[in-house]
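Hi R.,

Here's the chain you asked about this morning:
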Amino acid sequence: QVQLVESGGGLVQPGGSLRLRCAASGRTFSNYVLGWFRQAPGKEREFVAGISRGGATTLYADSAKGRFAISRDNAKNTVYLQMNSLKPEDTAVYYCAARFGVFPRIGDEYDNWGQGTQVTVSS
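And the predicted structure, written out as C-alpha cells:
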C-alpha cells in the first residue's frame, strides 16, 4: 500500500555520477524495506541495492558495491541511490521497490514497484 515514483535518471558519460530518487506516498513508509532494481535491454531484472526500514543496514549487489550508495529519509518518504563511477553496463531502467519487512535480503520478493527511470551511460 505505497506508491513509488522514481526520478533523477538521464544520460551520463562513463565515470560520471547520478543520484536517483524515489518518492513514496503512503502512511507506512517507515515499515518497508526499500530496494533498487534495474533491467537492461534484453536482460533479466536484477537487484542493485536494499536498505532496512530504519536505514542502518544496507545491501548491495557485487556490481554496485563500492560505487553505489543507497540511503533513505523517512521524514521525507524518500529513498536515494547515489551512483558513482558509472559504466556503460550500468545502462538500464532503474526501479524503486518496497516490501514489508525489516532487513533487505538477496532473493526477497518485492510487491510494490515504481514505474522506473532510465539511466544511460555512454560516451
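DSSP finds no helices and eleven strands in the chain.

Let me know if you need anything else.
M.
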